[in-house]
């Protein structure tokens, strides 16, 4: 060709490997593959690998300059790139394994089915023609009519006659059969036997019936497991139960039942059995299996229908409390407990039972009836938390803040009226609860509560509170220390009178309730028509309606350690003017202009709460 030049030359590359592997090596499957390599030096160790993975040393050998790899009986898995490496030099060949094509064996011939025996089928056939050169077996398969799946029954080595029993099928039905020849070179086409055979498997008990114990009103379930899927018949007390209905009855209005079959398991469900069904005999029958069991009805355990959870109740005193516990069984005994102790019936606590219901009644609850109540029966309990409280308390009087003013040694009484006689009342002074003592008296009269200070002292003053429930009454008490009871007269008084005149001695006190004593010449006077003792507000009077000469003397108005002194002189006639001038304090009648004072109302012996 014009303009083109091709040069051909032999190129020899010197290296440690003298004789290299061929580029390709074809070996028939099953033969031995032998690869040889010659190296320049003797006794060196090379490395054989296939597709990058080292080959086992058992396949390798070396002798002087020669290195051999022997792969006995190669298969398709042995194909690949085989490489011999020595240092940086290597040689590679592509090992290809060629398969020898074998024909599969031929199918059996003259296949026939015979159904002369009960629940068995006889299958016969002849060996294939020509007979296979390699060993072979026959594989028998079955197919249930209506299904697309073929299932292997078993394999045999010799042709002839094979009897297939009903035990070889999983469930009752019509079955077809086919057979084929199988060798190491493949499988022949299937040969289908003409017709079908009805086979019934022979069942065995895997898990039999067991006696059942249930409570009255519950469902009873009987079940058994068989070795194969097969229909069976249930019996109750010898009477066959119909299985073509989803649910049936032994007789109208009698026991209802349900028959179920799931795979290998058969179940009989008896609905809501009653006590009269106890002792019934349940049976099951199928080809090869008969089993039975007994039904026992127990009294159902009692359980609490209501309440389901703990109940918390709150009442006020005198209310009617009713705790109700409903059981699942009629007239079943139960016991009531309060704070862990069994209760005892009384007029204030009544226990009743009415069918399923048990009641604990408190006709008129009191605060002490509060607690944890329990209705207990056969290991189950209902719990009630009851709280009884007094009704709200209201203070009727006083409605406003009360201010009390008293003097030392006076009796001070604070009164608080509530709307309930049984309501608890507490007294406080300056924030601290008051405790009864010789100096403080706490009184209660019906709905009236009193705090009494019999002889008040200045430290007894302060802020008092009467607390009833959430309400309070407030009192401010002030005790004043006075130095004198007698306001008038402040000094000694001289009275001059003429016989048969009216003489009045007057003494004014600082408090209207104070009591005084009148004395004459050191002896206490006795009231009589000739000597009158009068009391008006804070004024105390001694009156001599018709004074006599013997009425002259020293008169004292005495209270505690104080006294007012009066000197009375009675004459037959008035003295001369000169004589009168010599004693300016003499007078016939002593009176002080009357003054008006406002005092709070109190008993004659004590000072009560009020304002001055």
UniProtKB/TrEMBL annotation:
Pfam families in the record: I-set
Localization (cell): Cytoplasm
UniProt-listed CDD domains: FN3 (cd00063)
SMART domains membership: IG, IGc2
One GO location term (cellular component): cytoplasm
Keyword Metal-binding: no
Domain Ig-like: 301-387, 391-478, 489-569
Start and end residues of each Fibronectin type-III domain: 104-202
Main location: cytoplasm
InterPro entries in UniProt: FN3_dom (IPR003961), FN3_sf (IPR036116), Ig-like_dom (IPR007110), Ig-like_dom_sf (IPR036179), Ig-like_fold (IPR013783), Ig_I-set (IPR013098), Ig_sub (IPR003599), Ig_sub2 (IPR003598)
PROSITE patterns reported in the protein's UniProt record: FN3, IG_LIKE
UniProt KW keywords: Cytoplasm, Disulfide bond, Immunoglobulin domain, Phosphoprotein, Repeat
Top-level taxon in the UniProt lineage: Eukaryota
Name of the protein in question: Obscurin like cytoskeletal adaptor 1
